[in-house]
Every structure is written in structure tokens, then in C-alpha cells.
Amino acid sequence: MKRLIAATAIFILSALPAVNTMAVTQDNSFTFISTMGIFEDVYDFFKSSPAYLPGFEKSTLWTQMSNLQDTNERLLNTYGSWHPTVGSNATYQTSNHYLLGGQTGLLGLGRIGGMLDWLSQSTPQPVIDLNGENWSGFGESTRVVEEDQDADGQYDQRRTTYGRIEKITHSYENDVYVAYGLTVMPGLDFGAAVRAVWDRHQPTWNDWENDVSLDEIQQTRNYNLVNEQYLYTLDLTRSGSLDYGESTWQIVLGGRSKGLLGQLPALDLVVNAGVLLQQADNSYEYNYTRHEDRNPADANVYNHDAYYESGIEPGTGVYPGSGLGFLLNLRGDYTLNKNMIVTGMAGINAVPFTLADAKQDRITADDQQDWSGTGDLLRDRLDTTDTDAFSGTCNDSLFYASGRVQYLDKGWKLGLGIQASSSRTESDLSYKSTYRSEASHSGEFLPYDNTTATVTYAYEGNSKTVSAVNQLALPVGLVITVTDNFFIRLGAIHVIELQEETCSFELSSQSGRNRVVAHGDGSATQSADIIDGLIEYQQSTLAVRQYNLYQYGISWWPHPNLQIDLAGFEYLVYLGGYRVSATFHF
Fold first, then answer.
1. Which among 65, 171, 179, 181 has a CA at the least distance from the CA of 115?
2. CA-closest candidate to residue 238, choices 306, 297, 187
3. Which residues face 352 on adjacent strands?
4. Distant-in-sequence, close-in-space partners of 96: CB < 8 Å, separation ≥ 6
């Protein structure tokens, strides 16, 4: 399971993060980012609370040109274009998301807004089939080779190899936000918002020596053209799939009071409360079978291997389960005078998460039969079953508080702030592992030499992890008015960060490894030992660091209905490096 409350850069807390615990769409504007959260525009208020909607005077349209899915995208980039420092190989991969959103009035019945961020794509992966042929995503080939084994001028053996392989990754990401706001009475607004975020991935995943999310067939046939008999056959199939994803549903109610119904006209107060529903699933399956026959004319001789694995794949970081949490935050803007505004905010997000049906099963079956040099038909078989099960909870929480002062003058605006946050994750997981194998050898002349060896072991343990990130930050932002339609923005922030983590693992039970060998004459031997690699431990880490971040940008209004924000233009002549956002107002 991914952390439900992501470790967010501290300057994000200058806005009111009312609904974001898991997001695909960027929730802050270029104005916000380039001033380290000191100043905002319509988009920031639109995403922070539905109660702000009734206060908007104009309608707004956001598109892919708004660059809000990933503000680092270079919308003017030409692939392979020249770069001042990198050279001719400078390329920037875009996110390939479709984005469309906006907000408008409903003829006096309040205001409504929404945003759709959508991605659905399949990517073929390079593959090589049994015949050494290279394909992209899918391919199959058959190769036939005829040979003259005895050099008599006639073909006497035919070798046929068939290979089929498919390997394609699939990704789906969606972020849908819908909000409605209504003025109940002068100075009092209410709003409601629903946000659904879900992603699903079906990638190629390397687990042990297996490549999953694939489908493969290999066949080999050696055929004697003279005797018209098969000399050798091989059939191999591999198939695997990895499918995991997360979804978050958020329902938020917001209220806004401007002046507390006339008693404090300088105070703008906003409150948001909501519920968060988090769900995750993880499904992994791998099948492998291999049947080799070195003498097809003799049905007693064969070699058959099979392997099956199913359950979850912990390496994805996503565990199946669900959690129901809440969010609550408060923001107040107080206008001291026409040049100065003081803002304070605080909030908490919390989501408990419970794992469900999290386990891995691995089953092996190997069967081999052949004649011995003394004429005995020997058979060796190995069957194993290995299961790991997980259960427990993972609780995430985030608390934040901040304050800032904005000074507004005719040609410039300056803001200073202080921000504090504390995010915490507590996980309490139980593990249970069981193993059983049975190896049998039969067909020997002496009964004692026919054996069945059984190995079993099991253990249970508990793992606890508590991690916390505490931050204190001091941002500053500046906006300079060059002309009535052209602005320069600068931002800087100093961050002091304390990271703490405590991990422990404790064995609650252990059966040890037991091995019993039963012989064909009725005798048996037994041995037992401990399981290697099981170590109880407890460790703690503490890290403190300080760092500075800097941002800059410009805003240009070439038309009263068009706002263009720019960033990433350290090389003015290199348009491919520009980060651009275009927003329409009408």
C-alpha cells in the first residue's frame, strides 16, 4: 500500500489542501509554485475548497495547455532539439494525459466546476522469441531446418522450432473532480465537492527469474525423415500477469463566511470537512510448464516441470485492503488595511488502512522418469508448496499549520510565512509462512533405496514500523508588476526537516525445519534444525537536514481573456525548455 498521506513539499501547505491525499492532477497553480505558496490564483482556490466557487466573478477554462497534470512538462519541446548544455539529445517525455476543466455560473443558481485528468495507454515491450527473432509487443515465428546427418546426399532429419511471445504493459490513471457552490445569504457561502482518483497498472515485472505480464509458447520437434518418427519433443508455456491499483474517493463539504454576517467585515473564514475512502488491490499470477521427451517412442521416458505462483506482489508497494478516514481544516484571511493581509490555516488528514487477503502461494511439481543402466525404470518427483500470508493495519496521518503576511503595493507584492507540518505512518503487520516439500525416488531394485523425503517448516512474526517527518519552513514570495499585463514572480523557502523511523521484527512462533525420510523397507530417519535468516531486530534512525528551494516565473496577459504563465526559461532562446501554462477567463 502506498502511503495515503504522501510526503508533500512543505511549501504546498501554504494553500488549503482540502481534498488531496492521492492525486494525479497538480493541485497548485504556477502562481502558487513560483512564489512558494505565498500568492495564489483562481485555480488554487478552486481546488482548495468548494466554498470559494460562489465568489468567482468570471468563468475559467483549463486544458492540456494549462500544464496542470505535471507542471514540469515542456509544452513547446521538439524531440531531439538542440539544448544549450545537453546538446542535440535533449528530449523531455510528456505525461500524455488528457486534461479538461473549468468553472462557471448557473444563471443565478450558484456555480459549478469540474476537472478531468485521464490517461489510458498500452505500451509494447521488446521481446525475443525462441528462434531469436526480435519483436515489439507480440510476435511468432516458425523455423524449419532439414539436415543430412549421414552425408549421403539425402535429408534424413527435420528440426522444427515454433516461438510465440507477447509482452505489453497497460496503465490507467484518472482524476475526476466536481464541485458546486451557492451563496446562501450575503456573506455566507456553502459548497460540496467530490473527487475520485484511481490508477491501475499492468506492467512487466521482474520477480525472481520470471518476467510476468507476458504470454509465451515454445515448441521444438526433431523428426527422423527416414524412420518417420519423432526423436525429440519439447513444449514450454509461460504466462503471467501483474495487476494492481489504488482508488480514493473524497467527499468534502465547505463553508465560507466573509465578515461573520457583518460583525467582523475584515475576516474571511473557510472551513472544510470530509471523508476519505481508500481502496487498493494487487493480483499476481505466474504459470510455467515444461514437458521434455528425449525418446518419444518410449512412453515411459519423460521430464515434466511445472511451477505456479499467485497472490500479491509486495514489490509494487501496494497491498490489498481498504480504509475510511477524514479530513478537517480551517483557514482565515484577515485584512488589516488596504496594503496588508494576514492568513492562518490548520488542518488534519487521517486514514487508517486494513489489509485484506494478502498472501503469496508458490507451487512446484517436477516429475522425471527414465531407464537406469541396470534396466530399472526410475522415477523422481518433487512437489513443494510455499505460502506467505500478511495481515494488519497501516495508519497514516498529517497535521499542518501555517501563517503568512502579504504586503500589497501598487507595483509589487511581498509575502513572508512560517509553516509547520507533521506526517506519521504506523504499520503493524503479522506474517505467517508455511512450507512443505515432498521428494520421492522409486523404481530401485532394493526397497531401502526407494525413498520419500518430506520437509516442513513454519513461523509467525510481527513487524512494526513507525515513521514520522516533521518540517518547519520559512517561505518568502515576491511579485513585481512590470506593466498592467506583465508580472515577474520570485520565491524562496528554507526548510528544516526531522525524519524519524523505528522498525522492529519479533518472532511469535517457529516450528523449525523438520525432515523425515521414509524408505521402501519401512524404516525412516528424522532430523530437525532452525530456519536460517530469521533474525529478530529493532532499529531506529534519525536524520535532520536543512535546505533551500528557489522558484521563479512570469505571467503575461496578451488578452483580457488569456493568462500565460512561464517557468523554466533559464535559456531564453531555447523554447524547448519552457514550462508553460495557458488559462482562459471569460
1. 179
2. 306
3. 395
4. 119, 121
Asked whether 184 and 256 are in contact (CB, 8 A), the reply is no
- Residues 311 and 320: their CA atoms lie apart, in Å, by 10
CA separation for the pair 267, 336 (Å, rounded): 9
**Could you write out the DSSP letters of every residue in 247-263?**
EEEEEEEEEEEESTTTT
**Cell 537536514 identifies what position?**
545
Are 457 and 437 spatial neighbours (Cβ–Cβ below 8 Å)?
no
> Which residue type is seen at 70?
D
In angstroms, rounded to a whole number, what is the distance separating the alpha carbons of residues 411 and 399?
Answer: 36
In terms of Cβ atoms closer than 10 Å to its own Cβ (0-12, 13-18, 19+), residue 71 is: buried
Contact predicate 298/231, CB 8 Å = no
The one-letter code for the residue type at 405 is V
Question: pLDDT tens track of the chain, all 586 residues?
Answer: 333 333 222 223 333 333 334 556 778 888 998 999 999 999 999 999 999 999 999 999 998 777 776 555 544 444 444 444 444 444 444 556 788 899 999 988 999 999 998 888 788 888 888 888 888 888 899 999 998 888 888 888 999 999 988 888 888 888 999 999 999 988 899 999 999 998 888 876 554 344 455 788 999 999 999 888 999 999 999 888 888 889 999 999 999 998 765 657 788 999 999 999 999 988 888 889 999 998 888 888 889 999 998 888 777 778 889 999 999 999 999 999 989 999 999 999 999 999 887 888 999 999 998 887 777 888 999 999 999 998 999 999 999 999 999 999 989 999 999 999 999 999 999 989 999 999 999 988 888 889 999 999 999 999 999 999 999 999 999 999 999 999 999 999 999 999 999 999 999 888 888 999 999 999 999 998 877 767 888 999 999 999 999 988 999 999 999 999 887 665 555 555 567 888 999 9
Question: Beta partners for 256?
Answer: 189, 270
Q: Which of 424, 281, 421, 255 is nearest to 351 (CA)?
A: 424
Quote the CA–CA distance of 555 and 489 in Å, as a whole number: 8
3-state DSSP assignment of residue 159: strand
Q: Is the dihedral of CA 481, 61, 52, 29 positive or negative?
A: negative
Per DSSP bridges, beta strands 451-483 and 579-585 are unpaired
- Integer CA distances (angstroms), 490 to 248, 386, 475, 481, 487, in order: 34, 58, 11, 12, 10
CB-based contact 470:7 (threshold 8 Å): no
Residue 349's contacts (CB-CB under 8 Å, 6 or more residues apart) are 5, 17, 21, 276, 325, 326, 327, 396, 397, 398
Q: What DSSP designation does 300 have?
A: T
Query: If DSSP states are collapsed to H, E and C, what string results for 104-137?
Result: EECCCCCEEEEEEEEEEEEEECEEECCCCCEEEC
Query: Nearest-CA neighbor of 342 among 416, 261, 263?
Result: 416
CA pseudo-torsion sign 12, 15, 20, 25 = negative
Tell me the three state secondary structure of residue 130.
coil
Q: Give the separation between CA 123 and CA 121, rounded to whole angstroms.
A: 7
List the one residue out of 219, 215, 380 whose CA is nearest residue 305: 380
Please report, as a single letter, which amino acid is at residue 249. W
Whether the CB-CB separation of 111 and 55 falls below 8 Å is answered with no
Q: What is the number of other CB atoms lying within 10 angstroms of the CB of residue 227?
A: 11
